[in-house]
Amino acid sequence: MSPKKTMHKYFEIEVSLIGPKPKVWRRFLIHKYSTFGDLHRAIQVACGWRNSHLYSFWEKNPYTSAIGDNTTFAISPYDEAENYDHRPEYADQLRLGHIFDDTSVGREIFYLYDYGDSWIHTVKMTGFHKFEEKFRRKLLAGERPFPLEDSGSLPGYQRCIDAYHDPENSDEDLLLWMGNWSPEYFDLKKTQAKFQLPRKKSADFDMSTKEPDDIDKQLKHQKTIYANVIDFQARLLANHNKKKLLTAKTTT
What are the tens digits of pLDDT across the range 20-65? Predict the structure, then answer.
């Protein structure tokens, strides 16, 4: 009797940006044992973002939810859970299984990136698959580039589109800043090459090929690191306030 083959489980995820028409979207596979931190990094690479702002995951659209109906459940490690009444988890400490399972096809959550420009993404589970092949994540498809980072939310995105289509009547500085960005051309093969991760552990703390027990050990270690970062930030702010107070006393 031949040995039973190990089948690895993957969520198929489609990410689309709320607002632009025609639709701007990506679809990829990500390992079932990934965390929401892994999902965040997958979205960043697939969509061409630069991972330079805070982010959060929501059960409901943050801009259409009722006042007080805060459904944030996972946040950036550089954010502070103490700022939220309901104390959401840090994204690297929460596995995708908190929201998705093999019966969750069609379920949607929301990903908010950059609290200034406020890019809201719909994150929809479109399938559940089993493969003999073991990988961390795999980009399948997508259409159109996402907006340029720090372009100024949807109005700024539209200004970039207008400038692309009418460069002769557009601001030269804006055109220089845009570079070779196009609102239509998306290089799938190039993005797939960036999206693919090696099977060995990488520096971005991707957990998608680890089993639950191993993930729990790693997450405990990462939680300690994040706690130290937050403590350092708090001490830095306290020291800054102390210096301001001493300066004020010496000038009075």
Answer: 999 999 999 999 999 999 999 999 999 999 999 999 999 999 888 7
pLDDT tens, residue by residue, 97-117? 999 999 999 999 999 999 999
C-alpha 166/C-alpha 9 separation (Å) is: 47
Q: Give the fold, CATH level 3, of 8-144+186-242.
A: 3.10.290
What token pair was written down for 79?
A: 């954010």
First to last CA, the chain: 88
Q: Which residue has the tokens 């596995």?
A: 95
Give residue for tokens 């830095």. 236
> pTM higher than 0.90 for the full model?
no
Instruction: Give the dihedral sign, CA 223/228/233/234.
Output: positive
Could you tell me which of 50, 39, 51, 33 has the C-alpha nearest to residue 14?
A: 39
The Cβ-side half-sphere exposure at 242, using a 13 Å CA radius, reads 6
Domain with CATH 3.10.290.30 in the chain: 8-144+186-242
Cβ atoms within 10 Å, residue 163: 19
**The two structure tokens encoding residue 31:** 């390992």
